[in-house]
Write a structure and sequence with these properties.
Distance between the termini: 21 Å
Order of helices and strands: EHEHEHEH
Number of strands: 4
Number of helices: 4
Radius of gyration: 13 Å
Largest sheet: 4 strands, parallel
Helix content: 25-40%
Oligomer: single chain
Structural class: alpha/beta
């Protein structure tokens, strides 16, 4: 799998988790990674194309990851969205997939 040309956006408000995720992605060869620490920052960055968006579900608001999924849908972007969370529930999982998230 070629990862060096994949454009990623990582949306995470916890600095420690963000750093760990970036290190992990770098180890797997991802070189083009942008970051945002809020849904609002992510919305601004979506002016540029991203192949994959990895978004934390719970940030400054309870539904921040869902806000990112909605924005991708509203802009009709082809980005794959992956929702990350430590607070998984069946309801949240169903909501994420119904909204178009690729993985949860």
């Amino acid at each position: 799998m070629q990862t060096e040309n994949v454009h990623l956006l990582v949306v995470e408000d916890n600095p420690r988790f963000l750093e760990e995720l970036l290190e992990w992605l770098q180890e797997y060869g991802y070189q083009q990674v942008a970051t945002a620490t809020s849904a609002a920052q992510a919305q601004e960055k979506l002016a540029d194309p991203f192949d994959v968006i990895i978004a934390d579900m719970r940030m400054e608001q309870d539904d921040s990851g869902f806000t990112v999924v909605n924005e991708v849908k509203e802009r009709n972007l082809s980005s794959v969205v992956i929702i990350l969370t430590a607070n998984d529930t069946v309801t949240d999982c169903r909501t994420a997939f119904k909204m178009g998230a690729w993985d949860y």
